[in-house]
Specification:
With about 300 residues, the protein is an alpha/beta fold. The protein is about 45% helix and about 15% strand. It is globular, with a radius of gyration of 24 Å. InterPro entries: Chromosome_partition/occlusion, HTH_ParB/Spo0J, MoCF_Sase_C, ParB/RepB/Spo0J, ParB/Sulfiredoxin_sf, ParB_dimer_C, ParB_N. GO terms for molecular function: catalytic activity; DNA binding; molybdenum ion binding; pyridoxal phosphate binding.
């Protein structure tokens, strides 16, 4: 599957027909009264299923959705229905009464949320059954191509592809149609403290500010300068000048790195599968373990406590 070319290869072209029924079946069903006729031929394998049967995508890289845009899209759906099908996978579970059928979203979470706001009972879908890595890739590609992700969300998605599916930065770059440098720079944002990442996500500072802050290795100083940049509405150039001034006042004596501590750090990172940081010495200090989502935190807790 040529994922780097996007979702177009997975979503068939639309054809016209018409039919009306309350049961989930091939496209050609009007979603609600008053909307225009949208339908797709049977040969395109587009079906209408109940909205309540579709579960959100656990691999969705996008964390934030503009409420105003969702409301606007919902209003459009009330009039015209959902024009582009969702991409879902089919999940069958054996229950005492037989087989329970549900669907998991792969791509189209914004449309799914808007459909709920619009009160649609059924929505058009294309059913695919990719593996877990492909689900994440498809969700990521859709959002990257639509430019829906902020830099932190994009960085988390790239990091997850590398961590969970053992991809290199070059492999990720090929999958999403970006250069390796873009992927590398995005992932570096995750080295910044959470508060700074939050400011980037909220658009208070830019990725350009982040690159400047990464020059500084002290997390507390990174937080302080990020706050200053927000308060004083600093441009990237102004922040860069401030950082250069600070760096010029530092001692020219290079920091002595304890090789044994560095070995400990590498061993812990490899064991936990996540970045860690030491401060202090072997006699007394702090160990900081990074995590990037609730799921990641749960994984680390199980690893540290020996839970299965």
């Amino acid at each position: 599957m040529a994922l780097g070319r996007g979702l177009e290869s997975l979503i068939p072209q639309k054809n016209k027909s018409s039919e009306n029924t309350a049961e989930p079946q091939p496209a050609g069903v009007l979603l609600s009264q008053g909307q225009t006729d949208f339908s797709v031929g049977r040969r395109d394998s587009v079906f209408y299923i109940e909205l309540e049967k579709i579960k959100p995508n656990p691999y969705q890289p996008r964390r934030e959705f503009d409420e105003g845009e969702l409301a606007s899209l919902a209003e459009s759906m009330k009039q015209y229905g959902m024009i582009q099908p969702l991409l879902v996978s089919k999940i069958e579970t054996v229950v005492p009464s037989g087989t329970k059928v549900e669907y998991q979203l792969i791509a189209g979470e914004r449309r799914l949320k808007a459909a709920g706001l619009a009160g649609l009972r059924q929505v058009p879908v294309i059913i695919k059954n990719p593996d877990e890595a492909t689900k994440l890739e498809l969700a990521l590609i859709e959002n990257v191509q639509r430019q829906n992700l902020n830099p932190v969300e994009e960085a988390l998605a790239y990091e997850r592809l590398m961590r969970e599916f053992k991809m290199t930065q070059i492999q990720v770059a090929v999958k999403v149609g970006k250069s390796r440098e873009v992927v590398a720079n995005r992932v570096r944002i995750l080295d910044l403290p959470y508060e700074v990442q939050k400011s980037i996500s909220e658009g208070k500072i830019t990725e350009g500010h982040a690159k400047v802050l990464l020059i500084i290795k002290n997390p507390e100083r990174q937080r302080f300068l990020a706050e200053e940049a927000v308060k004083k509405d600093m441009s990237v150039r102004e922040l860069e000048e401030l950082v250069k001034q600070e760096e010029s006042y530092k001692s020219k004596t290079p920091r002595v790195v304890d090789p044994e501590l560095e070995n400990y750090k590498k061993t812990i990172q490899d064991t936990l599968g996540t970045p860690v940081a030491f401060s202090g010495s072997r006699e007394k200090g702090k160990l900081a373990i990074s995590f990037y989502s609730q799921e990641d935190l749960d994984r680390l807790i199980k690893k540290l406590t020996g839970q299965p």
